[in-house]
UniProtKB/TrEMBL annotation:
Keywords: ATP-binding, Nucleotide-binding, Transport. The keyword Transferase does not apply. Gene3D superfamilies: P-loop containing nucleotide triphosphate hydrolases. It comes from the Bacteria. SMART domains: AAA (SM00382). It comes from Botrimarina mediterranea. One of its GO terms (molecular function) is ATP binding. The keyword Nucleotide-binding applies. InterPro entries: AAA+_ATPase, ABC_transporter-like_ATP-bd, P-loop_NTPase. Belongs to the ABC transporter superfamily. This is Putative ABC transporter ATP-binding protein YbhF. PROSITE patterns: ABC_TRANSPORTER_2 (PS50893). Residues 2-232 form the ABC transporter domain.
Length: 315
């Protein structure tokens, strides 16, 4: 759906983006992470055929940015990081205006507008003035607008920037819904946690260069090759968590035991690479008379994974 090869944009001597390569399949949700000025907007504007690269190739939905920009515009929904809304227009009028621009006519137009409004949960603001909407609602209206012509590919430039926590959560839920509809999505942000649980692919861009470009699942595997467990026992009958830690440290399949960070918190037990079965741990504790209250695999979050993976690269 998106194929980029050696894409480069220069402004004078400055490389806004430099030799970017990227390949996204249908249904991929690509989180494009980078600090301000890293090159996210430049990349998206080139894909949206609003900006010419200095050199390099880019195809969207099978169409070249050089030879078929009109086909690309039909296939994409591009939401810029800042967009204006017209004053003294109602929400529904605003959408109908853009639907008309997409040549959606007659009864279908009203239906399409109502459908996208429902999708972004703004049906109840149908007759409100666009200028009366909160920033979160305005962003959702912007999303509704780019969905009018049912594009296969969405390019969303920082859709959650400047929103309060609740509105960010709403945008994330909406992205998940669009993902379940099979859309291919490129969504940018300058912070990773925002996109962590929405994307299946992540790219990190710094000073115009894509320094990480990976499948989320692969990153997880790469970062965590060992099993890490959270373990807790009941502190009674002379048995303590410290005693359990000592016992576990002596087991051959255990590589390390980190004490609990605060009173009552579980131990963090890392197994040796070849030992994957946590039931040995349960058995050893049980046989020594401990009452196990917690034994679960410690789930690594994407943020930690990427921090580990990019250590030293982004500093
Ligand atoms: N028209 C322009 N003329 C000169 N330099 C530009 C122009 N547009 C962008 N740049 C530069 O290109 C680089 C990349 O900018 P870009 O807007 O793509 O970054 P970004 O990752 O989208 O940042 P932000 O998160 O702030 O939107 C920056 O150094 C920027 O100053």
């Amino acid at each position: 759906m998106i194929e980029i090869k050696g894409l480069t944009k220069k402004y004078g001597e400055l490389f806004a983006i430099r030799e970017i390569n990227l390949s996204l399949q249908a249904g991929d949700v690509f989180g494009f992470i980078g600090p301000n000025g890293a090159g996210k907007t430049t990349t998206m504007r080139i894909l949206a055929t609003l900006l010419q690269p200095t050199w390099g190739e880019a195809y969207v939905a099978g169409h070249s940015i050089y030879t078929a920009p009109k086909d690309i515009r039909r296939a994409i929904g591009y939401m810029p990081d800042f967009f204006g809304v017209y004053d003294d227009m109602k929400v529904i009028e605003y959408l109908e205006f853009f639907a008309a621009a997409y040549r959606i006519r007659g009864e279908k137009r009203r239906k399409v507008c109502d459908d996208v409004l429902d999708l972004v949960d703004l049906g109840y603001k149908r007759d409100a003035l666009v200028t009366s909407l909160s920033r979160g609602m305005t962003q959702r209206l912007g999303l509704a607008r780019v969905l009018l012509h049912d594009p296969q590919v969405l390019l969303l430039d920082e859709p959650a920037s400047g929103l309060d926590p609740r509105a960010r959560i709403e945008i994330r839920a909406l992205l998940k819904e669009l993902r379940s509809m099979g859309k291919t999505i490129m969504v940018s942000s300058h912070i990773l946690p925002e996109l962590a649980d929405v994307c299946n692919k992540i790219g990190i861009i710094e000073r115009g260069e894509l320094i990480v470009n990976a499948d989320v699942a692969d990153v997880m595997k790469q970062v965590r090759q060992q099993t890490v467990l959270k373990v807790a026992v009941a502190e009674r009958d002379g048995k303590t968590l410290d005693g359990a830690a000592e016992l576990l440290t002596g087991l051959p399949q255990v590589e390390s035991v980190a004490p609990s960070s605060q009173p009552g918190a579980p131990l963090t037990v890392t197994l040796r690479a070849e030992a994957q079965d946590p039931s040995d741990i349960a058995r050893a504790l049980f046989e020594a008379g401990y009452a196990l209250t917690l034994l679960k695999e410690d789930e690594i979050n994407l943020e930690t994974a990427f921090m580990t993976l990019t250590q030293g690269i982004t500093s």
